[in-house]
Specification:
about 210 residues; alpha/beta; Rossmann fold; 8 strands; globular
Length: about 210
């Protein structure tokens, strides 16, 4: 099965992960909230089951896995069946765009970021939540991905690689923060959120599109 088929088949298992690892999930939400604009029209690419879009106030999403999209739709998200490399929206339609643990599943991450830039308004923000390939968790996921239900087809990237793509697309004011400093099985309270990256396994990146 390819990634889309896997997420279609195991959508409920994916969604239940967020309940099982509640404090990991909530820590990631807190990190992302550092960069999500308080107002504006947001889009999440790879919205999944809506676990991030809902608490972050995003009402529109793109998702190629039907079973995942159905769950997100039940949570009130307006979901479009599409891939990040070809978005069904007019240019400059959204004031901010979110990717969360999506970059590692994209067929062509740079093309998807380029397409997101097209539909993003001038001075709008792109926000990326990702597992840093250089982090302890990223290294574990890479080492064990062949036995993982969801990550077997993933390609993990470093924060430096993603920020280089953003610079190539002429984004400015690139900021980062990080969380998840312990093995996820050991986390029983909220993790702290720090500026920068290099220690935490989950990194949030924000950058502003040029006018």
């Amino acid at each position: 099965m390819n990634s889309i088929e896997i997420f279609d088949t195991f959508a409920l298992k994916y969604d239940q992960w967020f309940d099982k690892y509640k404090f990991v999930y909530e820590s990631e939400i807190i990190a992302l909230k550092k960069f999500i604009p308080k107002n504006g029209n947001g889009l999440e690419i790879g919205v999944g089951t809506g676990r991030f879009a809902v608490p972050l106030g995003i009402r529109t999403g793109v998702e190629p896995a039907h079973a995942m999209a159905d769950i997100a739709r039940r949570r009130g998200i307006d979901v479009y069946y599409a891939k990040g490399e070809k978005l069904p929206f007019s240019s400059e339609s959204f004031s901010f765009i979110l990717f969360v643990t999506t970059v590692c599943f994209l067929e062509n991450p740079l093309e998807s970021l380029r397409e997101a830039t097209r539909v993003l308004m001038p001075d709008g923000y792109i926000i990326i939540g990702m597992i840093d390939a250089a982090s302890p968790l990223g290294k574990v996921y890479e080492k064990t991905k062949t036995g993982s239900t969801f990550y077997r087809h993933a390609r993990f990237y470093t924060v430096s690689q993603v920020t280089e793509w953003l610079k190539a697309l002429e984004y400015k004011h690139i900021k980062t923060c990080q969380t998840i400093f312990h093995p996820i099985e050991e986390i029983t309270t909220l993790e702290t959120v720090k500026r920068g990256y290099g220690e935490g396994s989950f990194v949030a990146i924000a950058a502003r599109k040029r006018k």
